[in-house]
Amino acid sequence: MKRKNIKAPVKHEKETSSKRKIVVTIILLGVAFSGAFIVYFIMQIALNTKTPMVVVVSGSMEPNLHRGDLLFLRGKDADNIKNGTIEGKEGDIIVFNARGLWVNAPSDPIVHRVIDKMYDNEWLFLTKGDANPSEDAAWVPETRILGVVVGKIPYIGWVKIVLTDSGLLIPLLVIVSVLLVISLVWDIAKKEDDEEEKNSEKKIYDEANIKREIDIDFTKDN
User: Fold this and answer.
1) Would the N or C end of the chain have less CB density within 10 A of its end CB?
2) How many domains does the chain have?
3) Residue 170 neighbours by CB distance under 10 Å
4) What are 112's strand-pairing partners?
5) Is 136 a catalytic residue?
């Protein structure tokens, strides 16, 4: 009676494949999460500022800038920042950190126009919102300036404003991240289950064929 050699399934290959999928998933997640930071980092270098984008959160610069506008900033040497006047409104629009400059200064960066400048060991700028009745309460040192406005996308920043004001920004990011991880893990697990089911069906089919061949060989030998 002839017997055919039956090759046992290689469990090690299946484990290696699963580990490879997990590694690929981790890499994809890393790329997804780091992609935004990489783009932001490139913008920092290209625009020469640590803060290349801000969202307008007040109406103090209307009608030129509206609440919710996404602004693009470029770093500019203080001596090259254009001066202007209240009437002409020809000065550069700058974004600066006002925390501590005057009483009740907002914590968010301020987007206002330069209406005067002077040099006193460093450049100082007097600013005013186009829609405000008076200038800001203090001169802005050049070290407080984040950048000069060079472009905008209207109203797209409302998404950030709504999520921040409602306190949903961080929870939403966490929920989306968890759902993304669950989705990827589920896809991998489902594919492995499908593969195991196919392998199981194939194994049953192969064993049936082998048994039939053995029976045929046994009949021939007798």
Assistant:
1) C
2) 2
3) 10
4) 94
5) yes
